Amino acid sequence: MTTTVDQQSARLARLRDAAHRIRRHAIDMGEVQGQGYIGQALGVADILAVVYAEQLRLRPHDPHWDGRDRFLLSIGHYAIALYAALAEAGVIDPDELQTYGSDGSRLPMSGMASYTPGMEISGGSLGHGLAVATGMALGLRHRGNPARVYNLLSDGELDEGSTWEAALGCAHHGLDNVTAIVDVNALQADGPTAGVLRTEPVADKWRAFGWHAIRVDGNDLAALTAAFDELRAHRGSPGVLICDTRIGCGVPLLETREKAHFMRVEAHEWQIARDQLEEGYRK
């Protein structure tokens, strides 16, 4: 028992370090432009740390390896978060993050598959990712390829009817090689998600569509690892992990920002954000 506890403690410590570096990368990229979707990046850092450190089969220096697990970012404005995770995973050089959003960069502000190694699809217009994931998973199954497909969605993306059409199709075909991850940060471009279009009870709706659904605190690494382990072992239907996250998580200055969907951060605030991130990490 002691060994198991020690191993889990080491696992969580390793993931906490990875999530911290992802957040630090995101802040550094945000400063390049002085604005962006930094709040979402900080919110999903723990999720991406678990996915890229433990869940995905990949070869960092061969992003087109046929046996890789596919990670689809249908919420293209979260690209800043994925770039940070790709740097942590060794797919891109961390030094390249300083080109974020600049002319000629491979790291545009919205994700584009034609530019960035490890970016499987171009995102932006919401509601496409899960349909693509369904098609990819069907193709992989027909080819006998054991790779899995992961799709990161937002709660705002659940407003799109195409998402639910894809959810029906994925369950109909019994695609247990698909894992959807829904970032529920309760905010979208037009305001609080609940005020734009009520989606709760989210987990019950996914279950009604034939999915194996788990809901966790998306900023709790222990809960995330347990949930991902369960979803990987599940067979017979697709799985969805619904993650309640905090925009700006780890940086109190940004957690309390009123207009948080797309943040404008003053020049002097970036160092404050770094200092707060480091202070929280040391606790």
UniProtKB/TrEMBL annotation:
GO molecular function: magnesium ion binding
Family label: Belongs to the transketolase family.
Record's protein name: Transketolase
Co-factor(s): thiamine diphosphate
InterPro entries from the UniProt entry: THDP-binding (IPR029061), Transketolase_N (IPR005474)
Domain of life: Bacteria
UniProt KW keywords: Thiamine pyrophosphate
